[in-house]
Amino acid sequence: MPTYLDFEKPIEEIQSAIEAAKARADFDAVEVLEKDLEKEVNRTFKNLNDYQKLQLARHPDRPYALDYVRALMHDAQEIHGDRTYRDDPAIICYLGWIDNQKTMLIGEQKGRGTKNKLKRNFGMPHPEGYRKALRAVKLAEKFDIPVLMLIDTPGAYPGIGAEERGQSEAIARNLFELSGVKVPLVSVVIGEGGSGGALAIGVADKLAMMRYSVFSVISPEGCSAILWNDASKVEQATKALKITPDLLKEHGLIDDIIDEPLIGAHRDKEAAAMALKRYYLDSIKELSALSKEELLNRRYNKLISMGSFSEKES
Length: 314
Known about the structure:
Radius of gyration: 21 Å
Distance between the termini: 60 Å
Helix content: 40-55%
Oligomer: single chain
CATH architecture of the largest domain: Alpha-Beta Complex
Number of strands: 8
Structural class: alpha/beta
């Protein structure tokens, strides 16, 4: 059964009425109710606040990286292990095809259901996960294959074992190495982009966000706890952090916003996957027209421009 958030309850009620009308073959009622549903969807989703967008980014029915792999790739083979410690299931790496474009796809996978959430560590990678991702990128570079990276994590795993195995070094190494990779890199925040866990696969020629995704240095809950020691102020923290796509694009921190279905990727997974595919293929077509030197110079200039500012004389 689909999960409805609090602000989606009116949509749930109309959807239930539609199903009941279909069951009794009252197609006139179905037609009227579907028009009501369209109006309610427009009313609800065109007036979302930042906290509601955060809830959508974390929606349990939202497509995860593996959903996009299955929807977009064919002849795909999974790559396992970092060749140093172990395979981290929180990071997935697939080599395959998206239409006629050979692609290395790397994603953070949260998992569904208790068993899979534990297996995937709730989408929080260990350092070996980031090292696996870098190994996959280097393999793609060797064979001149573009890379698509899908960000969806609350953050890198903060456990003792992860710290012992060099969590911060693994993230920093990825930032350094990805900045110089000689193949096109496209990174997309498909849900929740949290802290260094997102940055580790977020250095790219094109960094985009799905319409209902978030990208932040810290979770709103963490921010609320640190600043106010009050979990009830999470909505205030969400607004203050400016973590939604439109605000981040306005500040030049992302390149594009992918226009997923108005009702959300969790309600129309196929349309969301097609939107992501179009963006990726269009980006690769644009980036492939550049020489290796042009690609690297463009990426360098893009990265050093982030956070730049100028002082005005008073």
